[in-house]
Amino acid sequence: MVVYNFSAGPAVLPTEVIKRIKEDLPSFDNSGMSVMEISHRSNLFDEVIDQAQQDLKELLQVPDDYHVLFFQGGCTLQFTAAPLNLATEHKKIALLDSGHWADRARDEASRLGIEVDVIDSTKNLHYTQLPALKDLPQDTYDYLHITTNNTIEGTAYNRLPKTGNTPLVADLSSNFLAQDYDFSKFDLMMVGAQKNVGIAGLTIVVVKDDLIGKAKNLPSMIDYELFAKKNSMFNTPPVFAIYVAGLVLKWVKEQGGVKEMDRRNRKKSDLLYDFLDDSKLFTAPVMKQDRSLTNVPFVTGKPELDQELIQQASEVGLLNIKGHRSVGGMRASLYNAMPYIGVEKLVDFLNKFEKDYWG
Ligand code: PLP
In a mutational test of the pocket of ligand 1, which residue from 72, 97, 101 has the highest number of ligand atoms less than 8 Å from its CB? Predict the structure, then answer.
């Protein structure tokens, strides 16, 4: 049975990438060693990491004063690393509370004793729309933190806030390289790789040079300046995860880059949203202008029926459409590697389920 994996992460990889991993596994680049066995201090790996950094900068079209850094510890560790590295002058940051992951970032910064001003929140609307992009007072905050795509709630910014001289820090974990932005508007991007750039164990930070080196004597493993200096190899990096990310980046380039990914993801998500909006059984709760291209939550309003649907879907190979435990219902994640046909199959299935339901 062909299966389509709608998981929010770790998520589907391009089939071409899986094929390449299989080919490379016994002997990477004719070295006689598997890619999991090669030393991070070898020329073989130097090429992998340098190429991945170069491909990513090309895809993002960011100028040369951005560093691409590779960390471990997930995007969650960056909720600690970013304030420790950047919140040095005002010791105060601004944050738009758009959902679970923004709130996690707020919590981690607060634990460090850094003041977090929540500029706006849509918690009282169950995060079915985004907070307002208000003008920020200048020279007040070390940065503004936003979550470009809210994986659980299914919202995404189409426009970015104008922050004046306040740096913009963004968690792009769930729509990185899947939705097009002017990436040079971000002063720092943090991304867990396991949705659109490969596998868990790797976190990518793309940061502007003028933001690093502000804090001194940080724990080494979260020190941006040190990681920039050591080309992300202060200690043993996640070699396999960086190699997979490199393959995914190459794949995105071959497909036509971020603009093409954005176009495809719009087409995929439109198909699903249009069906849901016409349906009498299903509801997509997010306000239209704030809908995510990559995570589409929907409900029937009847938890037992949702359960039955999720079960039936998995029996026909439509996997992992269960919504996050905090919102219930269903969620289809349509990351870059999900083909259009996967969404067509899902819509056909939902259509049939609805017809059977009404009898
Ligand atoms: N930010 C967003 C938007 C996420 O979706 C997630 C995880 O799903 C995280 C942060 C946390 O990432 P990690 O599990 O890599 O720490």
Answer: 101
29 in a domain, yes or no?
A: yes
Domain range for 327: 258-358
What is the average pLDDT across 188-207?
98
Report CA dihedral (5, 102, 200, 322) to the nearest 10 degrees: -20
Classify residue 200 by its DSSP letter: T
CA–CA separation, 199 and 265 (whole Å): 20
Residue 97 confidence (pLDDT): 98
Residue 116 is inside which H or E element, if any?
Answer: strand 115-121
Q: Cα–Cα distance between 11 and 195 in angstroms, integer?
A: 5
Q: Which residue has the tokens 């495809």?
A: 264
Tell me: the pLDDT tens digits for 270-301? 999 999 999 999 999 999 999 999 999 999 99
Check if the beta carbon of residue 340 is closer than 8 Å to that of residue 4. Answer: no
Secondary structure (DSSP) of 55-107: HHHHHHT--TTEEEEEESSHHHHHHHHHHHHHTTSSSEEEEEE-SHHHHHHHH
Write the DSSP assignment of 283-341 as a string of letters: B--S-GGGB-SSEEEEB-S-HHHHHHHHHHHHHTTEE--BPPTTT-SEEEE--TTS-HH
User: Do 337 and 297 fall within a single domain?
Assistant: yes
As a whole number of angstroms, the distance between CA 17 and CA 244 comes to 8
Same domain, 206 and 273: no
Residues 246 and 268 in one domain: no
Handedness of CA 343, 245, 263, 329 (dihedral sign): positive
For residues 99 and 153, give the distance between their C-alpha atoms in angstroms, rounded to a whole number.
7
What gap in Å lies between CA 212 and CA 208, rounded to an integer?
A: 7
Does ligand 1 have an atom closer than 6 angstroms to the CB of 171?
yes
- Please indicate whether residue 76, judged by its CB atom, sits closer than 6 Å to ligand 1: yes
